[in-house]
């Protein structure tokens, strides 16, 4: 089946939509967001007075700003940006540039064969070089990978890296890459058959100053339990919406190591992956610091297994939060040369404050509300939900359309969606807050 490469390309019977410059989209989104926050401030005056009598005016402003004003402003900005977003069509539909797929693996013998089988099924017409770096595995990962590649008749080069740490393994592989492009792929991530083609088509269609393209990573094991069901919607709607918004402003802040395409020359210019627990986050910010752009391609889809236990989930998300702090310390937002990227990274400066207020104030206030005390949690705190539903609705329609073009089907997961909308933030903010504290106190880093 021939799959159209750009579902957003206008249909022949429709008149071509008028293009709105990115600067105008940015301005329009901000006007709406500031109006929303102004209305919220006006309507919250009674709430502010009640809370002031309890904890004082300055602290009341700090709490309400973190619970309502800033979240409402950011959500409105995201919604309008998503509604205005139009992905440009590909200039080339069948790229043939040779590419290396780099996999850093440690004790992945159970998963690596399946990952390689999906690489072998790609419909990409260019040469694919598979490079696996075994990071001191003890379960025979390298041997299993070689046997799987031989069975699929896929050439593979296997290297060993004894020094533990994903960034060590990736940099070891980078030194042996002989193509202009490299795709990093986690050992448990499965590629859609057109994933490589879409990713490189976006890069080949992009301006010369684009150094990386992040792919769309979605959840494969969502049927395991309620935790994975919630994460399915987080990847499908939450993370995808943030990356689409950032991609619109030409500054996707994380070209995730699980599945992204990079120009090798750019990677070597910044010294490869840094010694950080969030190595892909810090790398992305260093690339952006050079004035390069990072795009996001929602049609380049891969599927990964997400944590199914609370322990592994909390460890992963705390690591992500800690990686964001590492990036903020490595490259200050005001050091970013591009205006849009400067703004997007500035948002990350606010996130620890929002997560702290939510963890330390909203959750206790939520418990108090059950006993009839609405000083902190009340009707005003629900104002963000309609905006969130509007954003998720718009993105769901887009994602479902992309899935249909890719020959995929969106799973029915209503329970997971309800839990994601109502409960996910209650989980994420405390976990992220813990990650910030880990970095603040420089606790031991755990890669996996």
UniProtKB/TrEMBL annotation:
- Write down the InterPro entries for this protein, in alphabetical order: Nucleotide-diphossugar_trans
KW Glycosyltransferase (keyword) present: yes
Pfam families documented for this protein: Glyco_tranf_2_3 (PF13641)
Keyword terms: Glycosyltransferase, Membrane, Transferase, Transmembrane, Transmembrane helix
Write out the transmembrane intervals.
Answer: 26-45, 57-84, 343-367, 373-395, 415-437
Which family would the database say this protein is a member of?
Belongs to the glycosyltransferase 2 family.
Protein name according to UniProt: Glycosyltransferase family 2 protein
């Amino acid at each position: 089946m021939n799959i159209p490469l750009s579902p957003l390309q206008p249909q022949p019977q429709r008149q071509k939509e008028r293009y709105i410059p990115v600067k105008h989209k940015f301005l329009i989104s901000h006007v709406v967001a500031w109006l929303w926050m102004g209305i919220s401030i006006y309507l919250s005056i009674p709430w502010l007075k009640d809370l002031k009598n309890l904890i004082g005016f300055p602290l009341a402003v700090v709490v309400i700003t973190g619970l309502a004003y800033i979240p409402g402003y950011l959500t409105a900005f995201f919604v309008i940006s998503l509604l205005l977003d139009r992905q440009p069509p590909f200039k080339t539909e069948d790229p043939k540039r040779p590419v290396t797929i780099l996999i850093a693996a440690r004790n992945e013998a159970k998963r690596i064969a399946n990952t390689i089988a999906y690489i072998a099924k790609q419909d990409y017409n260019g040469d694919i070089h598979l490079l696996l770096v075994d990071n001191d595995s003890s379960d025979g990962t390298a041997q299993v990978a070689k046997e799987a590649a031989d069975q699929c008749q896929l050439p593979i080069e296997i290297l060993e890296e004894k020094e533990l740490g994903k960034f060590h393994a990736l940099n070891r592989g980078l030194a042996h890459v002989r193509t202009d492009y490299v795709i990093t792929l986690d050992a448990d991530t499965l590629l859609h058959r057109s994933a490589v083609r879409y990713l490189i088509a976006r890069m080949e269609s992009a301006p010369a100053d684009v150094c990386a393209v992040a792919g769309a990573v979605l959840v494969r094991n969502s049927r395991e339990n309620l935790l994975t069901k919630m994460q399915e919607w987080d990847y499908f709607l939450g993370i995808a919406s943030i990356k689409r918004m950032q991609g619109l402003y030409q500054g996707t802040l994380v070209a995730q190591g699980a599945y992204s395409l990079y120009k090798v020359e750019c990677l070597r210019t910044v010294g490869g992956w840094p010694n950080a627990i969030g190595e892909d986050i810090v790398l992305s910010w260093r690339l952006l610091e050079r004035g390069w752009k990072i795009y996001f391609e929602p049609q380049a889809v891969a599927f990964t297994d997400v944590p199914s236990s609370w322990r592994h989930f909390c460890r992963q998300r705390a690591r992500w939060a800690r990686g964001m702090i590492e990036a903020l310390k490595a490259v200050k937002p005001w050091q970013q040369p591009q205006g849009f990227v400067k703004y997007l990274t500035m948002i990350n400066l606010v996130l620890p404050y929002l997560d702290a207020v939510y963890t330390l104030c909203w959750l206790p206030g939520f418990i108090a509300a059950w006993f009839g005390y609405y000083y902190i949690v009340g009707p005003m705190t629900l104002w963000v939900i309609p905006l969130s539903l509007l954003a998720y609705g718009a993105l769901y329609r887009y994602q479902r359309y992309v899935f249909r073009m890719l020959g995929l089907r969106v799973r029915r997961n209503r329970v997971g969606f309800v839990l994601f909308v109502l409960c996910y933030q209650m989980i994420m903010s405390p976990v992220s807050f813990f990650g910030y504290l880990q970095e603040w106190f420089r606790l031991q880093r755990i890669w996996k």
